[in-house]
Amino acid sequence: SLLLSLLQHQNGMYGLHQDVHHFNSFDKVRSLPLLLSQARIRTGIIGKKHVGPEMVYPFDFAYTEENSSVLQVGRNITRIKLLVRKFLQSQDESSSLLALPSHDPHRCGHTQPQYGAFCEKFGNGESGMGWIPDWTPQLYSPEAVELPYFVPDTPAARADLAAQYTTIGRMDQGIGLVLAELGRAGFLNTTLVIYTSDNGIPFPGGRHNPYPGQPSPPFLPPDLTPTVLDWFRLPYPSYSIFGPTPVRLTGKSLLPALSSEQPWVTAFGSQSHHEVTMYYPMRAVQHQHFRLIHNLNFRMPFPIDQDFYVSPTFQDDLLARTRAGQPTHWNKSLHQYYYRDRCELFDRSR
Asked: Which PANTHER family does the record associate with it (predicted)?
C-alpha cells in the first residue's frame, strides 16, 4: 500500500511477498517507483522490500533482502549510512526518490533468535554479536517502561517491550545518520523527508489490529503516492486493471498540511492478510472520536503470526498463564482476543 497508495483489495497483494506467502500485486498496477522511473526520476531502496513482482516495483538502486543480508541492509545503521552515501554520490542534479524501509523495530526471534526477540543485541559489541560503529545502544529498564493498555503488565511483556525500545533507538540514530548524509551531499534543504510506518507494534492488540489507542502509523499509506507525485508535479495516469473502470486513488496529497491545518476528520482502514495463513479481513472507519470496526470473518479465530507466536509475551505470558489458569494481567482473555464481535464501536472521548 505504501508504494501504491492502493489498498490490498485494490492492488491484489493481500499479504507478504516473500517465502511461502508468495503474494504479488496485479501485473498492470502502476507503483510509485514505476511512475517515477517513467518520468526519468531515479529511484533507490535500502532495506526491506517484501513486494512483487519486480516489473511492478522496479528500482534503479536496490539493496534489499532479495540481494543482501537482511541484518546488514535493515538494521546495521553504519552499512545503511554508507549505502545512502553511495546513492547520493552517484546522483546528479536531477530528481530522485530513496526509500529506506528499516527492519528495526520488527521482531526477529523467529529467524535470528541468537540476537534477541527484536535483534536488540545485534551489533552491540558483546561477544558474538558484532559491532555497529555508529550505534550507541540505549537500554531501558523493564520496570520503568510505560505500557500501552493492550500490552499485559507482566515482567516478560515489559522486558519484551524494553527490547523493542532499544531497536527503536537504533533506528532513530540511523535516521540521524541519513539526514547527515543528505546535508553532506548538499541535498538536505531541497529534500522532502517522509517518516512513516505500515503497522503498529507487534504485541497483542497492536499490529494487525485496528483498535484505538495503539500506536498508529504516522502517515496514511493511501496518501503517500499523491503526496510524492504532487512534490514532483506529476499527474497520476489514467489506466485500468480489469475492464473499463479506471483506477482511482483514494488518498490525497498532504503537502497542503505543511502550510496550514487541514479539516480532515475521517479516516478509513483495511486489513485482510499478513502471512498466507492469516486471513482475517477487517474494515474500520474513524470519524472524530468514534471508531467502528467491522470484522468480516468474525466466526473464525483471529490468527497469530509466527514472530508474535514465538515471542516471550505470547509464549511465557498469555499462552502459559492461560493454560495454567493464572491471571494474565491483560485487558481481555485469550478467548476474547481470538473470537471477536462482528462489529466493535469505540468512543475515544471517554
From this structure: N-ACETYLGLUCOSAMINE-6-SULFATASE FAMILY MEMBER, N-SULPHOGLUCOSAMINE SULPHOHYDROLASE
Largest Cα–Cα separation, the chain: 65
| Neighbouring residues of 306: CB distance < 8 A, sequence distance ≥ 6 | 110, 275
pTM of the model: 0.92
Do the Cβ atoms of 284 and 269 come closer than 8 Å? Answer: yes
User: In whole numbers, what is the pLDDT of the chain averaged over residues?
Assistant: 91
Q: What does the alpha-carbon distance between residue 126 and residue 67 come to, in Å, rounded to a whole number?
A: 27
Measure the CA–CA gap between 258 and 246, rounded to whole angstroms. 30
pLDDT tens per residue across span 286-300: 898 899 999 999 999
Spell out where 248-340 has E strands: 266-271, 282-287, 290-295
Coil/strand/helix, residue 322: helix
Query: 204 by DSSP, 3-state: which?
Result: coil
Burial of 177 (0-12, 13-18, 19+ CB in 10 A): middle
